[in-house]
């Protein structure tokens, strides 16, 4: 039994990923500096809404042809499709040069969309931008032209994508800024924390946007509003 429902995940789509990170600092301070991507990323659709879903995790390589039997991609597809809530694929490219070959393109974006995935977060590359599955979001390491020797190495085991340690069924929130893992027991606590942050920030923003702004007014507003970003 999860401590949240799909409707709780849907609610979180109304806020961007930085706002989710800010709220996590309030509800679980120990995660202030962990659990999110820490490298620049490329979004397929800069204007797509945030995706929020359960992690489906895997590892790939592409630089060299496999030297032993590889994971059956159909097993991976079965794994991604076995979910009672929407999913977000978190795929770690473990080559020494991540993104050498692209796992993601027209075919895999279409397949994974059909399997119920909202999109993907990866340190690897993606391609076929003009033939991409509509509505399937990608937050990736870079765009590249070839798939090289790309193959699945393993899945359903912990991965690390640009510093975001992720395990199976983690709750992922991602948009063009990057991605963050939300602890399951914090999902339903975030809206109240975001409301608090919004009210704190409004005090500062109102002062700065009003006529007659002075540094003294800002100082007073900051004193009464608590920490803001």
Descriptive notes:
This protein is α/β, with parallel strands linked by helices. Helix 2 (17-27) crosses helix 5 and helix 5 runs antiparallel to helix 6 (215-225). The chain has helices spanning 6-12, 17-27, 73-81, 106-114, 190-209, 215-225, and strands at 42-43, 51-61, 87-93, 117-122, 125-126, 137-140, 142-143, 151-155, 159-161, 164-166, 171-175, 178-182. The chain starts with 5 loop residues before the first helix and ends with a helix. The protein has two domains: 34-182, 3-Layer(bba) Sandwich (Glucose Oxidase, domain 1); 191-225, no CATH class. A hairpin with a 2-residue loop joins strand 9 and strand 10 (164-166). Helix content is 29%, strand content 24%.
Question: Which series of helices and strands comes N to C?
Answer: HHEEHEHEEEEEEEEEHH
Quickly name the level 1 CATH class of the largest domain.
Alpha Beta
- The CATH architecture of the largest domain can be given as 3-Layer(bba) Sandwich
The pLDDT mean sits at 96
Full CATH superfamily name of the largest domain: Ribonuclease E inhibitor RraA/RraA-like
Q: Beta fraction of the residues?
A: 15-25%
Number of helices: 6
Low-confidence stretches are none
- End-to-end separation in angstroms reads 35 Å
Q: Shape from CA axes?
A: elongated
Can you tell me the CATH topology of the largest domain?
Glucose Oxidase, domain 1
Helix/sheet category: alpha/beta
Give a quick account of the main beta sheet: strands, pairing sense, barrel closure: 8 strands, mixed
Number of domains: 2
Keywords:
229 residues, alpha/beta, Glucose Oxidase, domain 1, eight-stranded mixed beta sheet, two-stranded parallel ribbon, 12 strands
């Amino acid at each position: 039994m999860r401590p949240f429902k799909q409707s709780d995940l849907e609610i979180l789509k109304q806020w961007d990923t930085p706002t989710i990170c800010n709220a996590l600092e309030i509800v679980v301070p120990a995660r202030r500096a962990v659990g999110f991507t820490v490298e620049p990323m490329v979004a397929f659709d800069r204007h797509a809404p945030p995706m929020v879903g359960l992690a489906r995790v895997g590892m790939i390589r592409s630089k060299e042809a496999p030297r032993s039997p590889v994971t059956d991609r159909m097993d991976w597809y079965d794994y991604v499709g076995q979910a009672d809530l929407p999913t977000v694929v978190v795929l770690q490219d473990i080559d020494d040069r991540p993104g050498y070959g692209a796992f993601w393109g027209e075919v895999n974006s279409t397949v994974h969309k059909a399997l119920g995935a909202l999109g993907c977060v990866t340190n690897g590359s993606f391609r076929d931008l003009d033939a991409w599955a509509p509505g399937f979001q990608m937050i990736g390491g870079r765009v590249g032209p070839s798939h090289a020797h790309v193959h699945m190495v393993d899945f359903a085991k912990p991965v690390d994508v640009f510093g975001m340690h992720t395990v199976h069924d983690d709750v992922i929130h991602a948009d063009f800024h990057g991605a963050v893992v939300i602890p399951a027991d914090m999902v339903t606590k975030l809206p109240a924390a975001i409301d608090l942050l919004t009210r704190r920030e409004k005090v500062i923003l109102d002062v700065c946007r009003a006529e007659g702004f002075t540094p003294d007014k800002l100082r007073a507003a900051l004193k009464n509003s608590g920490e803001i970003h």
